[in-house]
Amino acid sequence: MSSPQPEDALVDLADQVHLFREIADDRVEGMKKRAEQLNSRAALLITAAALTSTLGASVPGNAWAILAILTTLAAAAAGVLAVFPMRDNYPKLEELRARFLETGSSQAELDHADEQVITYNDQVQKLSWRGRLIQIGFLLLGASILFRSLLVLGVSIRVG
Q1: How far apart are CA 115 and CA 97, in angstroms?
Q2: Mapping DSSP to helix (H, G, I), strand (E, B) and coil, where does residue 63 land?
Q3: Cβ atoms within 10 A of the Cβ of 18, count?
Q4: Is the pTM of the predicted complex or chain greater than 0.70?
């Protein structure tokens, strides 16, 4: 039995790097789809907050009206913050090209895949934060609707 030739090891490494890159690319695509979904939800939140702000006439000085306005504004703000674009940490194409020329394609692909993993993990955390922000926004919107309902029903708050 002969030992593996260096050329075979290089071919195996190139195949492994290529497979890893395909997996990383799939994960990044999934992350992009999730970002698009979150953008849609945030837009819905902003629209719903805008529509909710027009419901019912506010009664000056009424605690329910003030709470309704404040929670509606906070819900809209959460939606606006959630749609702010996320910065990515991908290297510039010029850097990638230079690295390919310096190190060879397999090593450059592996380096790029490693950077993709770091960027992916960073983006997943940012998407998770955006998702929580949208959830909080919808909870605030629900509270706003509750406060407006209490206002319309004539429920009063007694202090002391």
Answers
A1: 15
A2: helix
A3: 14
A4: yes
